[in-house]
């Protein structure tokens, strides 16, 4: 206030009014500019707050996504381990089944050779078929799951029933060749 009074000293009343009026207009313009800037600051503050909230939400989503990614990667590793174990188990089972099949084939060959030694081609002498031999034959037939073997075994049984030693010897040779 004192600075205004000092600046007005020595001026006429008209000049004082004009100077005060000009100062009032300048003050109003300055006040209007300050209000505009204040409203802009409010808008920017609100926008900043909103952006900070969005950023916070985005960071939370990112953390959850990274956590989920880590869990999925761990699950994938576990799944790969399980798949590898299943493959190994399957291969071991196939090897075991193949080994058992080979043993059964060898047992069948032995049984057929033994049965051939009981059979005399020159005479009509047949020894009774043993249930153990045919149990082995049918077991092998089902292990190999071949129609030829099952059909051959059925014909072999029929030939033994009718005491046809030529048919019997033919099918014994056929079975030996199959195995």
Helix and strand layout, with pairings?
Elements: H1 2-8, H2 13-118, H3 131-144, H4 147-161, H5 165-178
Helix pairs in contact: 2-3, 3-4, 4-5
Keywords: Coiled coil
Protein name: Putative cortactin (inferred by orthology to a S. mansoni protein)
InterPro entries: Taxilin_fam (IPR026183)
Distance between the termini: 124 Å
Classify the beta-strand content into a percent band: under 5%
Order of helices and strands: HHHHH
Quaternary: single chain
| Secondary-structure class | mainly alpha
What low-confidence regions span 5 or more consecutive residues with pLDDT below 50? 118-132
The average pLDDT score comes to 76
The largest β sheet comes out as:
none
Radius of gyration: 53 Å
Our count of domains comes out at: 1
* Tally of strands: 0
Shape: rod-shaped
Helix content: over 70%
The tally of helices reads 5
Keywords: Coiled coil
GO molecular function: syntaxin binding
Protein name: Putative cortactin (inferred by orthology to a S. mansoni protein)
Pfam families: Taxilin
